[in-house]
Specification:
Blueprint: E1 2-7, H1 13-21, E2 26-32, E3 36-38, E4 43-45, H2 48-55, E5 60-62, H3 68-75, E6 81-85, H4 93-96, E7 103-107, H5 119-125, E8 130-137, E9 147-154, H6 161-185, H7 216-225, E10 233-236, E11 239-249, E12 260-263, E13 266-269, E14 275-283, E15 289-290, H8 291-296
Parallel strand pairs: 1-2, 1-6, 2-5, 6-7
Antiparallel strand pairs: 3-4, 7-8, 8-9, 10-11, 11-14, 12-13, 13-14, 14-15
Helix pairs in contact: 1-6, 5-7
Length: 307
């Protein structure tokens, strides 16, 4: 069966590889977003999916929207169905009708929970212990189409958005393949989404700022959810400090929210409940370092506080 694959970020690479290797499927072309500026020098860089598709020898179409000007090229691929993983744009109705069996999206949440661009990040920030992935038939809404299949995944205390997304990208690939085949053959009948919906809008820099007055567990969930992107941060002495990981420390109390103390060669920051241990930080303009090394460089720790 001929398949068009649409995806953009690194997370969308494992499913592309899996579909490409599946003898039951033929990925005939890849649709991805246009090259984008990256880094301080704003170098125009192809997406992770574009780079991998070219390595696999697959034709690549680049577009930030699937408008009428792209329809002929998509039809010319000969695909009868499209697979979508984090392509990054809503499709108009005319585009949804291009392929005989439609567009099947792999989304990293248990729909209708966490509809939007940052489902895993928002789930971890909310403290969800069980996450998952869903395949569904694209419609014009934001992740609102009928569900084809799901899988679940348990979150550990060590997980960040990066580790969960990596797992789901790999475990979700077989689900996507079976969903494509099931929908195309008529063996699977998508079901309308049921339950209360929640939104997972894209994260911005301000979203990642730590609020030290929140309880320790909430702070820890927040840091894990925004790691590695956009990256948890706070301010010290008027400059940003990235916080790479914190560990709730219920045995440490008596520290004012945001204040930092060294106790027994460990660095703790106060929150709205008990403290959290800081393990690694990245001061503005510097490389990542052990929190203890950073804290030792401050002369008056009793006066150090994040804002």
């Amino acid at each position: 069966m001929k398949v068009l694959y649409a995806g953009t970020p690194e997370t969308a690479v494992p499913p592309l590889e899996a579909l490409h290797e599946d003898p039951r499927l033929q990925v005939v072309a890849v649709l991805t977003r246009e090259d984008a500026p990256v880094g301080r020098k704003k170098t125009m860089t192809p997406s992770a999916v574009a780079r991998r598709a070219e390595e696999l020898g697959l034709p690549v179409l680049k577009a930030n929207r699937v408008g009428p000007e792209l329809h002929d090229a998509l039809r010319a691929t000969g695909a009868s169905i499209a697979a979508v993983v984090a392509y990054g744009a809503l499709l108009p109705q005319a585009a949804l009708e291009l392929f005989e069996h439609g567009w099947i999206n792999l989304h990293f949440s248990l729909l209708p929970q966490w509809r939007g661009a940052a489902p895993v990040q928002r789930a971890l920030m909310a403290g969800d212990r069980v996450v998952g992935a869903s395949t569904f038939v694209l419609d014009q809404g934001m992740d609102t189409g009928p569900v084809v299949g799901t899988l679940t995944d348990e979150v550990s205390e060590e997980d960040t958005a990066r580790t969960v997304l990596d797992r789901l990208a790999h475990t979700g690939a077989p689900l996507l393949a079976e969903s494509l085949l099931g929908v195309a053959s008529g063996a699977v009948h998508p079901e309308p989404q049921r339950g209360e919906a929640s939104a997972a809008p894209k994260l911005t820099g301000p979203d990642a700022r730590i609020t030290w007055s929140h309880p320790a567990v909430v702070v820890a969930h927040h840091v894990r959810g925004v790691t590695p992107e956009p990256g948890a941060w706070t301010e010290f002495d008027g400059q940003r400090v990235k916080v790479e990981r914190v560990v709730p420390a219920p045995q440490v109390t008596g520290i004012t929210p945001g204040h930092v103390e060294i106790r027994d060669r460990q660095v703790f920051a106060g929150t709205g409940s008990y403290a959290v241990e800081l393990t690694r930080v990245q001061p503005a303009g510097k490389k990542s370092m052990a929190a203890l090394d950073w804290a030792r460089g401050k002369q008056h720790m009793e006066q150090v506080a994040f804002v």
